[in-house]
Amino acid sequence: MRGVITRLHFPLEIMLVCVRWYAAYSLSLRNLEEMMAERGVLVDHATVHRWSLKMLPVLAKVFRRRKHPVGRSWRVDETYVLVAGQWKYLYRAVDRLGQTVDFLLTARRDIAAARRFFERAIAQHEAPEKITIDRSGANTAAVRGLLADRGDAIELRQSKYLNNLVEQDHHAVKRRVRPMMGFKSFRSAASLIAGIETMHMIKKGQLRCPDGLAFSHTDYFYSLAVR
Description:
It contains 9 helices and 5 strands, in the order ααααβββαβαβααα. It is of the alpha/beta class. It has 2 domains: 2-66 and 207-226, no CATH class; 73-175, 2-Layer Sandwich (Nucleotidyltransferase, domain 5), CATH 3.30.420. It has a 5-stranded mixed beta sheet with strand order 3-2-1-4-5, sandwiched between helices.
């Protein structure tokens, strides 16, 4: 993180405020430019975008190392994200309490993409006891293939009703993505979504508190950059 900050040549406090607001709230880049100007800070909206692309993936990586464990029953679903005028797929999973397990933006919705998501989630949290999916053939084949290869005793359930929890959780991310009016590239989409998902998980209380201290959501986010 320190190397990224050094190359940006701006006070860390200002950069983190802009990046946090952009990831957490339904604001456009020009909204942020105007809000900072009202506070006496002249920063171009394109500069805020550049900060976000550089800083958010690094902060998300730090978050993954300090994330609380999740439950052993996962609900998995995918939603659509507009990238360069084409729909891409955001795979997401939550546990039965609504805590985010993992997420992954993919170019395609197929067996390979689904399997990559499940392997990433299991690598982060170990294998769950149950996985609930819809009746997607790709997701079903990916899970069954993964179970056959790993030999894990995971119960596979296919239930639209049980997956309402993850479908509802999509809305928090989609509300933030909507003012961005689509992404220009897959790389920028992946970077910004990582920040949005990180802020969403912080609000859910999924970040381990450094030194046992209690922080606000804002302080939790800032702690990713300074600790």
